[in-house]
Design goal:
There is one protein chain. With 208 residues, this protein is of the alpha+beta class. The chain has a single domain (4-154), classed as 2,3-Dihydroxybiphenyl 1,2-Dioxygenase, domain 1 (Roll). Helix content is 19%, strand content 42%. It has helices at 15-26, 68-73, 90-99, 168-178; strands at residues 4-11, 31-36, 41-47, 52-58, 79-86, 103-113, 119-128, 138-141, 157-165, 184-186, 191-198, 201-206. The strands form two sheets. An eight-stranded mixed β-sheet has the order 2-3-4-1-5-8-7-6. Strands 10-9-11-12 form a four-stranded mixed β-sheet. A hairpin with a 5-residue loop joins strand 6 and strand 7 (119-128). The chain is globular, with a radius of gyration of 16 Å. It starts with a strand and ends with a strand.
């Protein structure tokens, strides 16, 4: 099973304000993506080379009750929320998660239409009931769809992505069992650290 970093999610209570802030910090304006029906969210995207940054926010056209959109709407400040890995074998990822004591949900078929009319279809495997919460990435299989990193605004690259956690050794062990190649650093509180190289220099993003 091959597992690679797919994208990192930066949650913002307001999509326009969050996208504008990322554009101001990096010098590259994110492109509007689309909505995720049933999840209460919509997004904008910024290429980071082989991966991308997803600015994810509540979708005012959807109900926000009991979903990710509602959780993001309650944030006081924007920040890194979680990340995703990509694999062509979601069943194998689910099996690896199970061996590590992690419950999963899915795969769930998803899709959206880009503003230019191109249809994207993918499947996601979500994480449930883990003591590590959003530190365990969900997995995505893009199937035959073009990867968003290849069609979103360029100019930035990802220099570093690190997960922070007070139980760094235990979390690293779970990552190894699941084939996740992301460093974990000991920290007082769970969180994330992403360092981008942009036209305006180094940009550091952290959890909210």
């Amino acid at each position: 099973m091959s597992v690679e970093l797919d994208h990192i999610l930066w949650a913002a209570p307001d999509l326009d304000a969050g996208s504008a802030l990322i554009g101001k910090l990096t010098g590259v304006d994110p492109a509007r993506g689309g909505s995720h029906p049933g999840f209460g969210t919509r997004n904008s995207l910024l290429s980071l080379g082989a991966t991308y940054l997803e600015i994810i926010s509540p979708d005012p056209a959807q109900s926000l009750e009991g979903n990710r959109g509602g959780s993001i709407a309650a944030l006081a400040h924007p920040g890194l929320a979680t990340f995703a890995v990509r694999t062509r074998n979601l069943d194998a990822y689910a099996a690896a998660a199970s061996r590590a004591g992690i419950r999963t949900r899915g795969p769930i078929e998803m899709g959206r239409t880009r503003p230019d009319g191109v249809r994207l279809d993918w499947a996601c495997l979500y994480i449930e009931d883990t003591t590590f919460g959003e530190m365990i990435p969900f997995a995505i299989d893009w199937k035959a769809s073009p990867h968003p990193a290849a069609s979103t605004p360029v100019g930035c690259t990802l220099r570093e992505f690190t997960v922070l956690h007070p139980q760094a050794e235990a979390l690293s062990r779970v990552y190894r069992e699941m084939g996740i190649d992301v460093p974990v650093r000991l920290a007082a509180q769970p969180g994330f650290l992403a360092v981008l190289q942009s036209p305006r220099g180094e940009v550091v993003l952290t959890a909210s």
